[in-house]
Amino acid sequence: MADCVKCLKPISKTGKNSVKVDCVECKKPFHGKCVDLTPEDIKYYEDNQSIWRCSPCSKERRKSMAIESRSGSSITYDDIYSLVTDLRKDLKGIETNLGKSINTAFEEIKETKSLVSKQNEEMAALLELVNKLTAENSELKNRVSMLESRIEDSEQYSRRDTIEIHGVPVEKGEQVLEVVKSVGKALDLTIETSMVSACHRLRSRDGTDKPPGIIVKMTRRMDAESLLQRRRVKRNFSTHHIGLTASPAQPIYINESLCPGRRRHLNAARVVKGEKQYTYLWIRGGKILMRKPEKAPVKVITSQADLAKL
Known about the structure:
- There is one protein chain.
- This protein is α+β, with helices and mostly antiparallel strands.
- It has helices at about 40-45, 55-70, 75-155, 175-185, 220-235, 260-275, 305-310; strands at about 20, 30, 160-165, 195-200, 215-220, 255, 280-285, 285-290, 300.
- It has a four-stranded antiparallel beta sheet, covered by helices on one side. Strands 7-8-9 form a three-stranded antiparallel beta sheet. The chain has a two-stranded antiparallel ribbon with strand order 1-2.
């Protein structure tokens, strides 16, 4: 039992695998279906005593005929018929392969469309999730901003009876409470020891020759406000007013004590004041206030967002 050269499977004597054809050139056997020949095609070859060549032998035959044609040799009718038959078979094979390629491409396109459709659905779901998370994030930011504002208000409220004195030089062996009393006396306000809950110098800043400020926590809020008011009235208040006349006069400032958050807003407001040409920037009741011309509306700054809106 011979094996088909194409599929390498045995060619049986009976059944559908028994239909075979032999190449006239190489004498090798093939299943009819392996070389795209039907039983009718093979019967036609046998009845008409026609010859059949396998694909490799056909190619070699066509090459040989082309060479013979160029050399002037004569070509018989059988040669032409064989050539046409080979071409027909090659075209049939090309058509079959092309059909398979088209079907394969169609299936791949169908699969790709299905995949793209699925990805579009996933993208839509992800976009919806992103939009939802964006909305939640915005809401959380608003809540955080609101909570930060409340915390700042609470911290600032706890400092309502605290003031800061800046510009007073440090003297060796000084008593900070006595310095505070001398400032009050210069502003026509008698400060008793019982009026001060606590006072101390701030830490010196690196890289500056300015004297560190003094933090004063008054026992009563009205005493702190009274000292602030007297300083606002006496605009040219300086070190000479407290008896430090050995050196040139330096201005003494008395300010409300700000919590860290409000202090950051104040520093940012100073920058914006120059950039957007605001004329006035001041603190009143722990609030940061800004105004452009004299009679323009006052802007209250409680957050960075307020500065961005200016």
